[in-house]
Amino acid sequence: MKMRFDSRLRFTSLVSSCTVKSWTVALCTAAWFGAFQGCTDSKPASSTAAGTAASPSAVNSPGPVSAGNSTSKPATFTLAWSEYPSWSIFGVADEVGLIDGKEGQMGSIEKKYNVDIKLVLASYDSCITLYGNSQADGVCITNIDILGAAGSRNSIAILPTSTSAGADACIVAGVNSIEELAGKPTRGLEKSVSQFCFERCLEKLGKNPADFPFSQMDPEQAALAFQGKNDGINSIMVWNPFVMQSIRSRSDAKVLFSSETIPEEIIDMVVVGKDSLSKPGGDAFAKALVETFYTMTQRMADPKTSDETLIGIGARFAKLELEDMKTIVQQTKFFSDPNDAKRLFTDERFQKETMPLVSKFCVKYGLTTTPVELSYGDAKGLMDFSTKYISGYAESQTK
Amino acid sequence: MIRRVIPTWLFFALAIAGVSVLLVSYEFLSQRQTRINPKQTTIPSFEKLGEGVKRMFAKQGTQENPKPPMFWNDMRATLWRLFIGMGIGVLASVLVGVLMGAYRWIEAPLSPIVMFLSKIPPTGMMPIYFAIAGTDQRMFTSMVALGIFFSMTQSIYQSVRDNVTDEAINKAYTLGASESEVIFEVIWKQILPNVIDCIRAQIGPAMIFLIAAEMVVSDAGLGYQIRMQSRVLNMNIVFVYLLVLGLIGVVAEYSLLWIRRRLCPWFEGT
User: Fold this and answer.
1) Which domain holds residue B225?
2) Does A64-162+266-398 carry CATH code 3.40.190.10?
3) Does the interface ipTM go beyond 0.85?
4) Does B232 touch chain A (CB under 8 A)?
């Protein structure tokens, strides 16, 4: 059947071909703007990125800044952090006014050290990307995931915040024993602290990790899916607050095993890029972070402010009560005492057993192609565990 | 003057110049970043990108138990999800869209629902998809299919109403066509080019939904690998994957244009 075509039809085709063209033009323009955006964007980034940057005028700070010197304009440093008991402390420190996470605003500790700390809250793996690509000076990260980043950016761990003693857990429903879990998929963040913990625990419990499949899922989404009793999500390997939420919201859920099995192998830390640390004000940034952390742990220990601080941290997690927070704090053993933190970084087991194991894990999963050179205090390795700032803080307290 | 024609050679020369300026500025940015941090992986040099490509095609697994290279594994997963999802979405929306455009009593109950649901971004509904459809192929399929279904139904039904004139339908009836003949011979043939254009327009959104879902839950696929490799800071692989995503879009666009030209030569407006 032949038809005569409506003139409107032809008009539509004209319009659509026009839109295709203008679309292409828009795309090209966008690509161009993107390229230049990258150019301009990398300016502030490079000032965060490295003190070795060609133009010294990029950094608005006159030489090394020492505590108490508040005459000059402070340099801004960025800390990327994600929600986790011993890291949310920085978020609460912002709420109580010790530091002000906004750029250009100063809290009491920032004033003391004359350094401007900018807090960036992101998901755990975004934090790693931000830090590794020099968009953040410091990052809250574990001793496992930092090795991947240290491969492309020399890093110094300035502060262990806590060690996981139950805070990373394999939670199951409808699975009664570890034997039953074999062959069933466990969901969690692949090639990260979660998988490390999963495999190490299985090894310690006398099983072969190869029999236990582990597949990638965002931990928050995995916890949500588990809580929603979704098909095929019967085992998840996540960390707190997701562990606690999952146990609370599903009656048939139980912890199959947890990082309690591998004490002091998973260390939660604050790491700063070596380049950032050697920048003017970098030292003050590290000192301010250390002091913020210990001031907050003191508030947690002090009966007067303890509950309030815990609730503060819990509120950041959403929907966790004081009682749950008390459990969470037990599962995350804080290094509240600087001497304890110092002991850990100088501990023989940590240096000779734990970190080589972690190193092996990173090579096995391609996080690094070769084992990352580690050093303890002399800053010679790509990744250094330094007690300089912890000791500095401890000394300032005894004086 | 607006729309003044330029010679073809000049057009192509300018196109090549545009691309080369882009490549040169990329190289410049990369070198600048490397000067700041020699070990940087943020803006990899072309050499590093080459290494990334090599790793993408490197053999995986052991000799007894070989696995396909990372790249093919991801491509297969993503393209399959995209193909199945879009296929179901397109079929369903053509069916519903044509019926809505043809019968007022189908249009009346469905149009407010379709109009409303087409406005909700499917990426925002991801947790609901997890809850309803689980986390495997079913989830990706339903996410892509439903993601494009509502807005595509909306445009197809609009197209039936706007592009098929009453005259054409009345003529067909006068010539003795049955209802199914009107639908298949008049309506369907008239809207076919618009349907193809709709599919072209929906490839972008479908990719967005799929990549977003893969970033959250999946153990293979382009989205999964982009997230994973950006966490372990292999930006050289991430960049190549993004390039591939662009290429998939371009190839799909041109194949659909070619199909439209073959099926509906009258539509070109010549």
Assistant:
1) 77-268
2) yes
3) no
4) yes
